[in-house]
Amino acid sequence: IELEPVKLLSREDHLEHTLAIERRRIRLGYEQVFQNLMQESNKEGDHFSSFEEEDAVSTDLTHVQSIELVQPPHANHHGNTFGGQIMAWMETVASISASRLCRSYPVLKSVNMFKFWGPSFVGDRLVFNAIVNNTFQNSVEVGVRVEAFNCEEWIKDQARHINSAFLIFNTVNDKGELLTFPRIKP
User: Fold this and answer.
1) pLDDT for residue 28
2) What's the mean pLDDT when you consider all of the chain?
3) Distance (Å) of CA 141 to CA 27, 32, 73, 94
4) Is the model's pTM score more than 0.90?
């Protein structure tokens, strides 16, 4: 489908259009960063032999689970949980996961592939599972999955997958220099 060109009538239209172009440029930049990270990872040689390294850390040590109860201050007037609240809880659990690996305070660099798969409501229990997926020279990727349960679903252990995301963290020393992460064993 061919769309009609955007007609910029006011200064606000020009400003919004410029901001949208910049947001697109940043999104495309993240794709390039991801491709660069994958190429960097591939250059390191045979992955399977590197997983056998004795100094590699098991990702089991980075698994973190947190449970939150959605209360009225966490939701809008329809009873739906605020997306920002879920993102904040996801960042907290991912940060704890990354800190188990780096033994430092990780700094959130980016949030990638954040998806809302379904809603959650006041009274739901949200289960957050985070684990380190991979480490790179100066960054670590943590995957987070969020499942929701109402009271009946909780008793029957029937989860609703509502969110997923990959969060990228760095760590810095007192001088602001990036620290290197240890290798991991998936």
Assistant:
1) 74
2) 85
3) 17, 16, 30, 9
4) no
